## 1
Amino acid sequence: MTLNILVAEDNAFTVTQYTKVLEKNGHNVTVARDGQECLEKYAQELGKKEFESLDKNPFDVVLLDNNMPKKSGVEVAKEILDKRPNQRIIFASAYDINSLLKAPGVIPESIEILEKPFSLNTMISKIQA
Amino acid sequence: MFAGKTSFKISGSVGIIILLLGITILFGTYQMSKVSKEIIIISQEYDPLQNILGEIRYHQANQVANFEKIKVGQLETDFDKEKEEFWSSNTIVKSNILQGKKLAETGYNMATTDAVGNDFRQIHKMFSDIEQTHNEFEDMTKDSLGSAQSDFLLKQITIKENQLKEKIDFTSSEIKKLNEQSINAIEGHERGWLTVQIGIMVVVGVIAVSLRHFIHENNSELKKEIGSKTLELQEANKKLRDLDEMKNEFISIASHELKSPIQPIFGFAELAQSGDIDQKEAWDGVTILAKKLQDLANDVLDVTRIESGRLTLYQERLRINELILETTRMLKTGLNKNIKIIEELDEDIEITLDRTRIEQVLRNIINNSIKFTENGIIKIRTFVNKKSDELLVTISDTGLGIPEEVLPNIFGKFVTKGHESENQGGNGLGLFLCKGIVFAHGGKITARNNKDGGATFEFSLPLSQRKTVDSVAS
């Protein structure tokens, strides 16, 4: 099954690797290099898809890095969830995830987490789960 | 601490006041007892004298009475009994006079002061007077009893008798006076001591009041001092908190920088294993990432060296233009933006410096310019100022410039991500290291925004070698 995936990640090498693996598994990948770009791409896709179905989210999965220029992953996640509360988001960050999780209200509970470094295979299984 | 000290002072002062009052009361009591004792001693000395005088008066009157009885009835009977009584009264009077004299002598010998001694001498003299008068009276009465009635002699005896009486009364009143005098003196003495006691109490009161005043003054001064010290401490505390925050931020940045290349390293390994990318691509990627980690580690080490003043410079004589051109050539090679790097260099002089470190400075500044310039020009100029004996290096760009809030701290540690549009993560150490290195060479570094956009960094290096240049840090 093909998934539409939005990847937000500022490290060029990492983005390339994600894309390579995800496309190999037959998914469509949209890349954003910072938080701002991620939100723009999300809104763009949302505008397109709204005509097709009101219930359908623009992307099946949004894979978010936390530490990005312009807007952090947490900020991006909040803005996306404001628009589409049932959007699936996976956090992939080298930041101390535990401290982010412990602070209440920082990350919505529905968000899934991948702590860096992780194997690309683990990422694939998580996204396809 | 402060409250403890103050209460200690107050309790100390109160203690001193109580002690002084106690001493005063004790002294007063002692004086009172001493005075009453003296009064008793004096009365003990004066009272017997008065008694003796009373005895003398009584027996003298007895003697006179008997003498008159004898004289009136001389011709009729013998009056042996009266005569006997006359002589015995005479003897008693005499012995009493003697006793009085002795007492006066004892008083004189025991007198503690000259005045009292004088008094007793006077008393002794008065008793001697009485004795003499009595002796005369005795002689006359003896003559009168032994011979025929003589009106003249009788008259003389009556006169003597009155004289004697007067003398006794005089002595008695004198002694009474002396007694009163000495009592008065003692009372005066006592009054004096009362004044002293009142004085001490007044002094104690004054001390207490001034102590209160002093403590109050002291307290307000201490309060002021504590106020200012508290402010100082608050400031110091704020500084420490800021430093701590910066340190935490640095650790967070550094740990992120250290962690972020690890993910793609794993990724390269995984992709190479699965054959999704070729070996060369994987090795190249891993090498670049390892280099990034190495640079970060070096920067952190350099920061530590600069902060502890252990930055060692390995200096050599070299041509400055050569060094600059070599650095820009390297940077131009890796450039993937529409940016022109232009060198406008002055005379190619020889200068003493640490090649690696100055290259590091140039690279850091030019890379910063590249980072904040999308397309435009980066100009590197040099100016050899022989007057001020220094080389000026200016790097100016046409980029975004430095945000106003960042500018004052631009050369501080952990100053990073000031720009919204920053696309490249910096570790916030580059310019701090630049400043440390330039300072170690004996130069200065400044940053400013250009009027027509972009930023300019300028640093100076001394032309002549300084003596202490070997290993100097900021």
## 2
Amino acid sequence: MAAQNLIETSDLTKQYGKNICVSHLNMQVPEGAIYGFLGPNGAGKSTTLKMLLGLARPTNGSITLFGIPVNEKNRVRLLTDTGSLIESPSYYGHLTGEENLCIIQTLKNCPKEDIDKVLHIVRLEEARHKQVNHYSLGMKQRLGLAAALLGFPRLLILDEPTNGLDPAGIQEMRELIRTLPSDYGMTVVVSSHLLSEIDQMADHAGIISRGRLVYQNTLEALHSHARQQIALRTSHLPVALDILRQNGIEAAVEEDYLLIPMTDDACVAHLCRQLISQNLSLYRVEKREKSLEDIFLSLTGKEHSL
Amino acid sequence: MKTLKMEFYKIKRRKTGLTLGAMTAVQFLWCVWAFRGPDEYERLQGWLGTLYSMPLLNSIMMPTIMAVLASRLADIEHKGNTYKQLRTLRNAGTLFNAKVLCGLLFILMMYAAQLLFLILLGHSLHYEGRPDMGLYLRYLFLSIACTFALYLLQLTLSMLFFNQMIPLVTGLCGSMLGLILMYLYNWNLRSLFPWGGYIATMFVGADWNPQTRIMTYYLMETSENGLLSHGFIFLWAAVFYITGRWLFTRREA
């Protein structure tokens, strides 16, 4: 049986004046997934997440959370099973970390023991009695995550949670997010403008560019698009193309190169001998790889749909 | 109820009570100075005299005090960037109501302290007879309503603007306007300004005799215009509440 989608949006659109921030977005987040919501800065990631949380009103379209269409009446009730960290963390600087969590715990109506548990998870136990104004940015971010984890909700929505963190903090945050589905049965939506970050954390990805969802599938499927090729540069391209065809190989021409699918070393050696035997000069033989970065750039820069 | 409880929890260590206490203490000190050394005649009408003076004093000080109170309650949310988190936990209307109620409780405490102070002051200055509690309750009711209307205005401004100078300057201007309105003898015009409510709803008048330099206080009859002034206070409160709540709830986080 296919996993239920915890989040489904249909034609979700947000327009500010003439500026369309999010356009006809159909997002599907399966239960138990870590859904990486990827896109360049200003692509519409935060606006989409804000709409999911009811912080921004959609101009058009609908949102379904936990299989229930969201409206103004049931929004807060549905969000009780959701934790969120949107943009910068929210906190009362004059209160201690524990007091900040106590406010959220009371409003979420979850057990008081959860405070100890989430402080342990984000490793802020020692700083629990310290005023948040005296926390480092990384600690504030971890406190924000702790607040989102209170009540151990089914769905966690994190908007660029590694923003402002040092490399160690980023690594720590990633590790933590990766464990949430397996340890606590949570579904996580995490946004980022960094492909590498999503690649290391998520198992599903949605790529948004200029407000439009240009890719949505598993990360594995995205990886399958990252293919390797062999590039050949010879003195006479049309002749070389014929020789390759005679050997049963279809090649593509790209600038001065012939691109053939990845093959073994013996086959490459055989093709090279064939080309040289026909008095062609062989200038270069290169291994080319279309990386995830290339795919991301082609999707977000040129908006080709996969 | 939980949201209201959290409003008080959030202002822990913010010394909001102390700030209001200090401003109220200034008001009390002003009274001590103004009512000092009463003669026999002043003692005779002392209780009525306080009911004449206090609305004037409130008119000058309360707009600023309300600006400070509203700002103290609202700016913690701006500083901590907390509205977006709170709005995933509660409806915007509930959050607004909690701030309104929190402020109202502070106002009630301030006026309770004011009542206690006036009674203690009157006794310490040996005013004749006992205070007429009916008149004092009337004064409290009208003053609280007027103060609450101003608080609603200030709260809306404080919640909408990140920069708290805008609401604070509005409060200070309100105080100045309150002072100017005292010299406005058209009572109906006073009612048109929310800051003029204290003066417009006064029910104790004073006759100043320049020859004898004696002030005689008297109870004014509530005319139709007076009732209209009372109505305006509640109208302002309703307008500020409805507008403020609407502006706050429609705003996106």
